[in-house]
Amino acid sequence: MDIESLLVLIAGTLGVPPADITEASDMSNTKRWDSLRHVILMTELETSFGIELSDQEMTDATSVAKIRGILQQRGVA
Amino acid sequence: MTRSVLIYANCQGEELLTTGHYLPSLAGRLGFKWIPLHKVSHEDWDTKYGADFMADVVTVWEQMESGPPSANRQELRARLPASVQTVRFPPFSALCLWPFAGNDPRLAVDPMRYPWSDSVAAMLAPQDLPDDALFSEYMRITTERMPDVERRLRLDIARWQASDAQSDIKSADWVERNFRDIKLFHTAGHLTAAPTAFVLKQLLERTEAIHRNDLLRLSGEVDMLLRHHLGQNFESVPVHPVVAERLRLRFFDPNARYRWHGHEWTFREYILRYARWAPYLD
Q1: The domain that contains A55 carries what CATH number?
Q2: Model-level ipTM above the cut of 0.85
């Protein structure tokens, strides 16, 4: 999945317009990215990429950049 | 001057606020205020939650979150009068019950129509299938793609326990013990009457501004006020029958109707309307 598709998937899961999500987005600067939506986002990533994230990865994935890094480490993005 | 309890919490705080507001034994003696921690902006601290707002606060019911304190939480703590009592309590959420919550681009355009997303129903929406075919396809795909909901439950339990570790009031054991027998959640983040009463009674018990002799009567008043509780925002998202089967939910009724504003829909009716993004306020 390319970065544009990942941004669209994150936006659609958080319920914000795609233009609101950039590579610099994180939990602190994105309005609807609260703790509940974060867990929903993690499970959506698991479903979309067919992977199982560890507790630590879910805790760490607090920004688009970190999510991308985890997906790249897993070889799915 | 009337004294107040300040509730610093997510939308679950609104239920505590509303119920607290109508407790007859506290009328005119103790008021309730709510700062929605998920909505407060930096400017709000001066315009809405300034010194006047804080002046009569004697107790804070502070709902905890995982991770380090947010900027808003630090702002709250800096602004509270020094003598305020703080009672910390956990948030409640259950992701395992709705495993297909996820990507639906329609949410960004119209976030309030169906705020609890279903990525599979969203994916099927453009196909414009007749009702029977649409529901059949939804059931086929969701059954095929059903994740390990027991693992999702374990993740939920781990989050409940992490929140408990930061809180004066503990909920994880109680939720885990009752999860299969009583419907505790209307949505992934909205509570039914039972957990609302569970946490509210403990908050009242720990509030020093409340006389100990009032507690038994207050407990009865909480039960009375929540007897006809219909769910926050009148929204109750149906549980998928395969989720209920795999999680062994004993409270589950496959023919149950779920409140959705002015309607009561079965699981099938809800999924069809959700997939079609059907308006329902007419």
Answers
A1: 1.10.1200.10
A2: yes
